[in-house]
Amino acid sequence: MKKDDLIKGIDAVDDELIAEAAGREPKMKYKTKVRLLRFLTGAAAVAAMVGTGFLLKASLGKAPKSDDKAAAIVTEDSGRVEANTEIAAESTEPSPEEGTAAEIVTETARAGSGYEYATLAETTTKKGAATVTAVMTSTKKITMPETTVSTVTTDVPWTEDRPFTFSNNEFFAPMKDFQWEAGIVNVQFGTAVLRDRGVWVNCSYEQADRILSMLHFLKPSEIVEDIGFEGGGFTLKVIYNDGSSCEYEFFGNLGIYYFKDKDGTVKRLVDTFGCELDIVKYLQEEFMKLDPYITAFFEEKYGQ
Amino acid sequence: MEDPDIIDLYWERSENAIAETDAKYKGLCMHVANNILHNDSDAEECLNDTYLAVWNAIPSKRPRYLPAFICRVMRNIALKRCEHENARKRRPEVLLSLDELDECIPSTEDVEAACDAEELGRIISSFLRQQPKRNRMIFLRRYWYFDSQSKLAESFGMSENAVKQLLFRMRGQLKEYLEKEGL
């Protein structure tokens, strides 16, 4: 056999396998942990994470000499951050409209897999534009010179109902990770964010409401944090009023969703709750829209 | 939009088919083309050629796996363009990954023996199906999609060395498998 024959043979591998290889990686070693949510005590200003239109670029910046860390200046383009870079973004700017200090939001985002994004802390207010101050710190190398800390101020226009957008066209890029992380940032304003492959996308009020309905169903306390979606399923860490907490792991396939209860038993969502949750339907629709291969993944991992 | 719906649009000769394909698969196509051409503008041109080719192919075809179908078209066009312009300028990753395949060639006496590509594709597919899903994905990402080893390591949460070792083992296994098949 000649090498050309072999190459042609590989070229002729079944479409099914080619399609599968274009799908999501079956196993991620890491577990993304994102700290995102803290409800506002005053409920005035909100700190939300990056929306699609506000991908920020950490570009060359001059580090403040007073700080040992390198600096990154955030601009309105997307930036590429290398794998395993951790970025912490903090927003500490008072809301100009509401006159109340904005919640400090800290995000530790795992950047990587070639995601073209950086992290931004964004404050939005009900009225008008909000001022954003993002401080980015990187504990590891970013694709930029020795930088790590910088501050940038930019205006973020408020949109009453920012359309929820997915980068569907990007999803099938084989190298892309698929992560969902959702959090309710502010109930009053109906602002929520979903995390789609490292990009925080604002939801509309209606979509936020759907997520809220799920959280309410689980009867969490007013604080919900550490919400991380991972690997096609997602995890909710709910902190109850008595201080106890529990991680609910959701996963599913073809509209049948499961979750792992406190005692570790796996239950079918529909059986447990007696109804399909809107958010589950919604996520399932989005899953199906985004990734037909995810069903194969679930079938393989959990059976049907 | 679901793939069958997109395919229906092609069959209806609706130009929305292209738009929907673009919305859903542009990222994947560009990834495939860029791995080969390493040039955004070339890749964009290939993308347009791909859409045209897919438009012309459906109908009469009704692909079962639309992304694979599109990728295959894109890949062929990109490889052809690459060879046409200057084979030496082909992205090193493509050459590297193809060179690695030397290790898979069975050491039969009859090196001139011709192999039917389709049959060989079936045998390789059969081999890959016996592999764990992750392994076969890595194999195809490397030798079909031409992803770099570092990229694979990043994507699969492995060290680059682990990826190299895995591919090395798989090449050896494939060679044995092909020899068992009498190739």
Task: Provide a descriptive summary of the structure in words.
The complex is a heterodimer of chains A (304) and B (183). In chain A, the strands form five sheets. Chain A has a five-stranded antiparallel beta sheet. By secondary structure, chain A is of the alpha+beta class. Chain A is built from seven helices and 16 strands. With 183 residues, chain B is mainly α. Chains A and B meet through helix 1, helix 2 and helix 3 of A and helix 2, helix 4, helix 6, helix 7 and helix 8 of B.
Largest sheet of chain A: 5 strands, antiparallel
Q: What do the pLDDT scores of chain B average to?
A: 80
Question: Which two chains share the most extensive interface?
Answer: A-B, 47 and 61 residues
Indicate the CATH class of the largest domain in chain B: Mainly Alpha
Spell out the helices and strands of chain A N to C: HHEEEEEEEEHEEEHEEEEEHHH
Class by alpha and beta content of chain B: mainly alpha
How would you sum up this structure in a few lines?
The complex is a heterodimer of chains A (304) and B (183). Chain A is an alpha+beta fold.
